[in-house]
Amino acid sequence: MKTMTAFRSAIEAAPIVPVLTVYEADHAEPLAEALMKGGITSAEITLRTPAALEVIRRMSDAFKDFLVGAGTIISEGDVDAALKAGSDFLVTPGTSPLLLEALGSHDGIILPGVATASEAMARFDEGFGVMKFFPAEAAGGAKFLKSLAGPLPHMDFMPTGGVTPQNAVDYLSLPNVIAVGGSWIATKEEMANGDWAAITEKAKEAVKIGRSV
Questions:
Q1: How far is CA 180 from CA 8, 60, 85, 142, 145, in A?
Q2: Which candidate, 55, 46, 114, places its Cα nearest to that of 78?
Q3: 183 to each of 16, 84, 120, 126, how far by Cα in Å?
Q4: How far apart are CA 130 and CA 16, in angstroms?
Q5: So where are the chain's domains?
Q6: Which segments in the chain show pLDDT lower than 50?
Q7: Which of 57, 94, 106, 163 is buried deepest, with most CB atoms within 10 A?
Q8: Nearest 5°: CA angle at 159, between 155 and 164?
Q9: Which residues are catalytic?
């Protein structure tokens, strides 16, 4: 796994991280290439399909400068499998005691999911400086994160869940948001149809959004 410094550097260049559910392993290379052509530097592959780990492995092998993360990490088995597949970072929707124990035994970039101030404070005390705010819109959106910036200025977040091209700037303009996760950049239909050009164009637009803040 790469260091948090490497992760921060990558998302500084493109602070919108595609959150991708990929159903075909053969889509790994053309998908990553399409995203990179659009200026995207990282992606989170959710562990929601049988192909996910192979997608991570193939993207990691083919593109060493592209940060490939594993999302929907919910168990110790997920942690081990994602790391063996070559994941550069791990993202969880939340944290159970057993999952925390598994995460604590690994160095590297880990973004645990939080939805409340108490969860964020607990994860920070456990050594996590950057957290996934999830589900972002349902849990209070940009207004909620803005309210945390005053009392908890030392914590950073990557909101995911309901983030769109229309509200991404609301999040990215906050001092405690280092990136947002969005699923709109590559849809299931576009991947199934091999419409990599459309994905590249949406990636370009996402990068413009990130740089407009």
A1: 12, 21, 24, 11, 12
A2: 46
A3: 10, 25, 23, 29
A4: 15
A5: 4-203
A6: none
A7: 163
A8: 150
A9: 44, 132
Cα–Cα nearest to 120, from 90, 146, 154: 154
> Which ranges in 38-75 belong to alpha helices (H)?
52-62
- The residue type at 111: L
Q: What are the C-alpha distances in Å from 62 to residues 21, 29, 65?
A: 19, 7, 9
What the block records as the tokens of 90 is 């791990």
- 148, 162 in Cβ contact below 8 A? no
Q: How far apart are CA 60 and CA 63, in angstroms?
A: 6
- Amino acid letter, 182: G
pLDDT in tens, 153-187: 999 999 999 999 999 999 999 999 999 999 999 99
